Amino acid sequence: MQIKLISTSDVHGYLAPTDYSRRDNVAPFSLSRAATLIKQLTAEDNADVWPIVIDNGDFVQGSPLTYFIARQHLEAAPLYSQLANCNHVQAGIFGNHEFNYGLDYLDLCESARHYPMLAANIDDDQHRTLFSKPYTILERNGVKVAILGLTTQFVSRWELPRHIAGLHFQDVVATAKKYVPQLRELADVVVVAYHGGLERDPQTNAVTERLNGENQGVAILTEVPGIDAMITGHQHRRLAVKVHGVPVTQPGMKGRNVAMITLDVNDDRQVTKSKPEVFAVKNYEPDAALMKLIQPINDQMEDWLDTPLGTINGDMLVHNHLQARLHNHPYINFINQVEMAATGTDIAATALFNDDVPGLKQHVTLREVMNSYVYPNKLAVETITGADLKQALERCASYFLLKDDHVIVNPEFLKPKLRHYIYDIYSGIDYTFDLTRPLGDRVVQLDYHGHAVQPDEPLTVTLNHYRAGGGGNYPMYGTEKIDHQLPTDMTVLIADYFATHPVVDATQPTNFNVRY
Questions:
Q1: Where do the Calcineurin-like phosphoesterase domain residues begin and end (predicted)?
Q2: d(CA 356, CA 513)
Q3: Is 226 in a helix, a strand, or coil?
């Protein structure tokens, strides 16, 4: 028998083939394109060839459409599980972003599903059905395939506590050690579907990111024998590799690719051969059945995106993302203004999340806002010390390196995953980086209200809730330091700001300097 483990991951709500930059945009990705390829890969389905489709998480958040459904049209939320049913998904995994709109909303998104959601390392105090299955066992012609579902344990570090009330995210390695031996007794083939990635290079075993528990795919395969295949996600990488002889895939993001692991199983029900592959979807037409489900709400959302908000006096478009991060930018300054206006603080920080952020055109619509501010962040106000702030700025300063007298981005922020969103720029303080100095000792000026910030000086700062919880390896921040949080998404706060400031000046800030 040949088993085909076909997976999507990190679709992030890109259901139709568009990036929403324009109403007529046609993008080379989407779940609807992936569906056509999945249909082709699953066409052969018989006693000798067994296709199994798995969605590996981060499905219901990440695009303007997901925001529109969550905030404007809750009745459309079952669409996600309806689409998964159309793709004949047989197991679903929770991604970290599944929890961004709370558990009631997540339950609504999954209300039409014909497949189990797997949550081996999620303990639920309320024993909800949605989190009750650690694994599923599928059987055909006497061959049993067990699928164990794991979610990166870092959810509790990032997510708003009220969104995950009653849930406890356990260590994925310990969870795999608990369940894999059991599944080896119950099934012939053991598959781990993990919404997490690889923390080491699959060829050299060199550490490729901080060993903080966010991504532990290699650790699982190193410490837990008996796994026949692993499906990964979360890092948005395109991977088809073997780790310790085990096939591993990861299909990128936004439905750009579909991953497949082929396992040959002999008459003794043992895996004799395996092959990991990843296929691009760009040359496949969107599936008509999926588009019929997607189109009505997508059309409504397109109309909504064209809602006018205000006017920019000057240039707030981001023309060069590295230069914007190096010298600050009017768009970044504007976002910090919105944060400070919402919370009443006079220090705020934000990131230029990725190199696709366009900034804002002269006549601002919701489309521009949602294409530039792509996360459903909420704000938190923290009281920290001057020493905390300096440590945070040193973390920011590590984003840059000097190479042949030119400033480049530290590869740590580029591989194995693009992480521009970890680098913040602050308003309300005056500060300077000296890139000729060693990492950890680059902040050579830090002033607040005209005086040098003292290590024990208390400061109140506005951050997004991800950073406020220490996300991005900012241990100087933490939930224990949060004074209060705002319940409103940043995109709404931006729209509200335009309601009271219909004309906004694009001002180049001068509070931040870099020497090199």
A1: 5-237
A2: 24
A3: coil
